[in-house]
Each structure stands twice: as structure tokens, then as C-alpha cells.
Design goal:
This protein is of the alpha/beta class. The chain is built from eight helices and five strands, in the order βαβαααβαβααβα.
Length: 172
Amino acid sequence: MTATPLVVLVGPMGVGKSTVGQQLAERLGVGYRDTDDDIVAAEGRTIAEIFVDEGEPVFRAIEKRAVARALAGHDGVLALGGGSVLDEDTRALLAAHRVVYLSMDVDEAVKRTGLNVARPLLTINPRKQWRELMEARRHLYAEVARAVVSTDGRTPEEVTQAVLDALELKEV
């Protein structure tokens, strides 16, 4: 039997997909899964190490497979890596799912992450690179999402409630 996620969260790095995803799973009485965690466990190294050792194209291929497996085999809340929506096949798979785009602006990103160099795509000029990443990805997040929830100035609990409200999901 194939499982299907109850909720799939997409959005930029640092937006709070993991925190909100865990809270959603708890409130809905389901499991939580993060494809970035799946990749790290399967590869035995960090995402940053994969980027450095193998390059972004290899990482994206690994990510594509991890997302497809998770979409087909998880029935709870699923959080996807920030760049997973870049892949056309992944976007097509997401069309059949209840996807929420968690959004934030650059000032909020700076507050939350400091746009630090531990993020492999933000190593030179983090603020400028974050803006460029978002310009390239924002429309893709919106394309796959059934709902968009802003996280700016909100606590994780407030964002979690906003996701539940947007999808009209009831807690257990």
C-alpha cells in the first residue's frame, strides 16, 4: 500500500519547515519526516559536504530521489529541502499533494538564520544570494502550493495554527 503525506511543507532554508512540521505532526497525531534528514542519513554526511564533495547537480539528483520516496511512503507531515521545487518532475509529483509554502522576507531570514556560511548556497554574499535564490524559487513554491503562510513576525505556534486553518485540518 502506498502512503501519501497529510501535509507537505515547502519554502526557503531557515523558514521553519522543520519546527512547524514537527508541531503540525504532533497536533495532527501523525509522524514527521524531513527529506534533508533522509539524505543525511542515507549518505552518511551533511548536505554541505555533499555540495562540496560532489557538487549541486549530484545533490539535486539525490534530493529528487529522496523526495519521490518520501512522497510515496510517508503518511504524516513532510518537510522538503528548500531547493527541491527546482526539479520539474518533483513539482509534478507535488501536484497531487496538500502543499503549504511557508514564506518569509529577507529581513526575517537574516534574523532567523543570520544567513550564515553553513548554508552551502549562501557562502559569498549571503543577503544578496538569498534574494537571488528567492527570485528564482518564489514562483515555484507558489506554483506547487495549495496555501501560502507567511512566517514573518510569527511564532512557530502561530504559523502551525495558520497552516491548520489554511488547510482546514482538525487536530486530534
